[in-house]
Design a protein that fits this description.
The chain contains eight helices and 14 strands. It has 315 residues and is α+β, with helices and mostly antiparallel strands. The strands form two sheets. Strands 4-5-7-14-8-13-12-11-10-9 form a ten-stranded mixed β-sheet, sandwiched between helices.
Length: 315
C-alpha cells in the first residue's frame, strides 16, 4: 500500500540515504565533486528546517520510505513560488517516475492552495526519465548548472588581447562594463532580470574572489569573475574543493565575440583554480542564452537542470 504523509524528524535519515543513492546514480563522476563526503549535514539541516515548517512529505510503500519532497517558499521575480532544490527530493529507483508523479500531484495542491502558481524544480541532467516526465507535464528548462574538474582540461589558447586580474583600482571600469552586460540582457525579454551592480559590491567581491579582464588597447572587452570558496551548497552541490563562476559571471563585448576571448579567460580561471588547489569549477547559465549554451557545454558537463512550470491562475 502506498501513502503520502508529512515528513517527521525520524524520517530524515532514510530520506538522506535515498538522496545519496540518487546522487551517486545520476551525478557522481570525475567532473563533479563528491558532495556526499561532507555535504550531508547541509541536507540534514535543510530537511529539518522544512519539516519544522511543514513543507515536507514522504511517500511510503508499506513501512518503507520510497520517496520524499521538501520544498521552500519564496518570491521569484515577484511571483509567489514553490521551489524544490537539488537536495529537496529523491525517489527509489524502482518505479521512481510513478513515485514522483504521486508526490508532485500531492505537493502541487498544497502549493496552489497557498497561491503558489510558479513551480521551480532542480533535477539532475542525467536523470532523463524524470526530465522527460517534467517536460510532459509542462515544465521547461531555464538554468543549467555545469561542472568540470580543473585538472581535466589543459586549454592552449592563442589570444590577441591582454588577460589580467583586476584590483581595487579597476572598480569604476568594472562597474561600467558590468552595467553594459546588464543592458545587453535587459534588451531581450527572454533573459531573467538582473540587479544593478554597485561599486561597493564589486569592491567586496574582490576581497575574496577574482575578476579577470580581457583588454584591447587598455579598454575592457571581456570579463570572467569567480569565487574560490562557495562551500557546501544544497542547490548547486558545490563542495569544499569547489570554485564557482559567479557575480558578474562571464561577458564578452558583442563586437569581440567569436575571437577566442572567452576561452582565453577560462584558461586563466582554470590555471588559478589549480594553483589554489581547487579541484572543481562550477558555472550556471540560462538556457535562453544562445552564447552560453554553445560555449559552456564545450568545456563543462551539465549536471543540474532547473525547470519551471506556471500553473493557470483561473483553476
Amino acid at each position: 500500500m502506498i501513502r503520502i504523509v508529512p515528513m517527521k524528524a525520524e524520517h530524515i535519515p532514510d530520506a538522506v540515504n535515498l538522496w545519496k543513492e540518487q546522487f551517486v546514480r545520476y551525478c557522481y563522476s570525475n567532473s563533479f565533486p563528491d558532495f556526499t563526503a561532507g555535504g550531508l549535514s547541509v541536507i540534514n539541516a535543510y530537511l529539518k528546517e522544512q519539516t519544522e515548517k511543514k513543507n515536507a512529505i514522504i511517500i511510503k510503500r508499506d513501512s518503507d520510505i520510497i520517496g520524499y519532497m521538501a520544498w521552500m517558499y519564496f518570491d521569484f521575480h515577484k511571483e509567489r513560488t514553490a521551489f524544490l532544490p537539488t537536495a529537496a527530493h529523491a525517489a527509489s529507483p524502482h518505479d521512481d517516475i510513478r513515485i514522483y508523479e504521486e508526490m508532485y500531484y500531492h505537493a502541487a495542491q498544497k502549493w496552489v492552495d497557498d497561491k503558489r502558481f510558479n513551480h521551480l524544480w532542480m533535477t539532475y541532467s542525467d536523470n532523463h526519465p524524470l526530465r522527460e516526465k517534467l517536460y510532459d507535464i509542462g515544465f521547461g528548462s531555464y538554468v543549467i548548472d555545469a561542472c568540470q574538474s580543473t585538472g581535466a582540461l589543459n586549454l592552449s589558447v592563442t589570444c590577441d588581447y591582454e588577460i589580467s586580474s583586476s584590483g581595487i583600482k579597476d572598480v569604476d571600469e568594472l562597474l561600467a562594463f558590468a552595467n553594459l552586460s546588464n543592458d545587453y540582457y535587459a534588451a531581450s525579454p527572454v533573459f531573467l532580470k538582473r540587479n544593478e551592480y554597485s561599486a561597493a559590491e564589486i569592491t567586496e567581491f574582490l576581497k575574496e574572489g577574482y575578476i579577470l579582464t580581457a583588454r584591447d588597447k587598455g579598454r575592457i572587452i571581456g570579463v570572467m569573475s569567480f569565487s574560490m570558496d562557495p562551500g557546501y551548497h544544497f542547490e548547486h552541490l558545490t563542495a569544499a574543493d569547489s570554485s564557482s563562476i559567479k557575480f558578474i559571471g562571464a561577458f564578452i563585448h558583442s563586437d569581440y565575440r567569436g575571437r577566442g576571448i572567452g576561452t582565453a579567460l577560462l584558461e586563466k580561471v582554470f590555471t588559478i583554480c589549480r594553483e589554489k588547489h581547487k579541484s572543481y569549477l562550477h558555472v550556471s547559465f540560462e538556457t535562453a542564452n544562445p552564447d552560453a549554451v554553445h560555449f559552456w557545454p564545450k568545456y563543462f558537463k551539465p549536471a543540474i537542470h532547473s525547470v519551471r512550470r506556471t500553473i493557470n491562475k483561473d483553476i
